[in-house]
Amino acid sequence: MNFTHPIAVFDAGIGSYQIARKIAKRYPTQDIVYFADRASFPYGGKGRAELLATLQGTLARLADYRPAAVVVASNAPSVMVLDDLRATSAVPLIGVFPPVRQALAASRTGHVAVLGVDSLVESAEIRAYVAGEASGGRVELVAASDLVALVESGAFVSDPDGTLAAVRAKLAELPADIDVITLSSTHLPWLANYFAAAAPALTCLDPADTVVEALAPHVRPGSGAFVTLVSSRPGYDLAGFREMTARLGIELAITPV
């Protein structure tokens, strides 16, 4: 298929699909390559060096499509290794970051939480990032790789009762005065309805809209093609991905890679 300098969007699975679709809606003639790198799931279980090597390999693969820009649609690598990736990339890279300032601005109590994969919330990089964004507010870093796994496995579709129980258990870990959380894995917004059911008064922020607007200078009119690439491994195979997207009512022409 011929492309006119597509926007490439990727993370370790289904998480980045919503960002890719938001880009397609905002820029309808933009060609898009969406890569669900399930073979590398989870990014959140990798140390910094392994994560950097994994993403360098992914960017090399996507270079074949001559992208105008690449969205690293995952909070952990955006916070932890994006600067290193940019140092060796000839293509503009757009990251996804926890909207800490927006969370504190929306909070009545000044106490908010960032939910993300374990490697993100345990990293020195996220602590430095939060320190620069918090401006006097209180920010809790909350490990949520268990919730991310429910999305990538498809359990959030096949086991709604179990998923709601897991979300309630996670929220029970938080201090009682937290009134805003950031869903700082691109998988977590898939659970927005569960968070709303578990805690109707809680505000949940998704940074996807900021990413879409940041792409404006890189848009190149094309045919509006949307190509889906999916890698796989045992436990995260192509059949499971197809079943999950079918249950979600998502129709994708998938190219295995």
Low-confidence stretches: none
Main sheet makeup: 6 strands, parallel
- Could you report the average pLDDT, rounded to the nearest whole number? 94
Q: How many domain regions? A: 2
Beta-strand residue percentage: 15-25%
Taking all Cα atoms into account, the compactness measure Rg is: 18 Å
CATH topology of the largest domain: Rossmann fold
Q: Which percent bin holds the helix content?
A: 40-55%
Would you list the SSEs in sequence order as H and E?
Answer: EHEHEHHEHEHHEHHHEHEHEHE
Can you identify the CATH class of the largest domain? Alpha Beta
User: Any idea what the shape is?
Assistant: globular
Pfam families: Asp_Glu_race
InterPro entries: Asp/Glu/hydantoin_racemase, Asp/Glu_race
Keywords: Isomerase
Organism: Crenobacter oryzisoli
Which descriptors apply to this entry?
isomerase, six-stranded parallel β-sheet, globular, four-stranded parallel β-sheet, Asp/Glu_race, Rossmann fold, single chain, Aspartate/glutamate racemase family protein, alpha/beta, Asp/Glu/hydantoin_racemase, 13 helices, 257 residues, 2 domains
Structural description of this entry:
InterPro entries: Asp/Glu/hydantoin_racemase, Asp/Glu_race. This is Aspartate/glutamate racemase family protein. Keywords: Isomerase. The chain is of the alpha/beta class. The protein has two domains: 138 residues, Rossmann fold; 107 residues, Rossmann fold. 42% of the residues lie in helices and 18% in strands. It has 13 helices and ten strands. The strands form two sheets. The protein has a six-stranded parallel β-sheet, with helices on both faces. Strands 6-5-7-8 form a four-stranded parallel β-sheet, sandwiched between helices. Strand 7, helix 11 and strand 8 form a beta-alpha-beta unit. The longest helix has 15 residues. It starts with 6 loop residues before the first strand and ends with a strand.
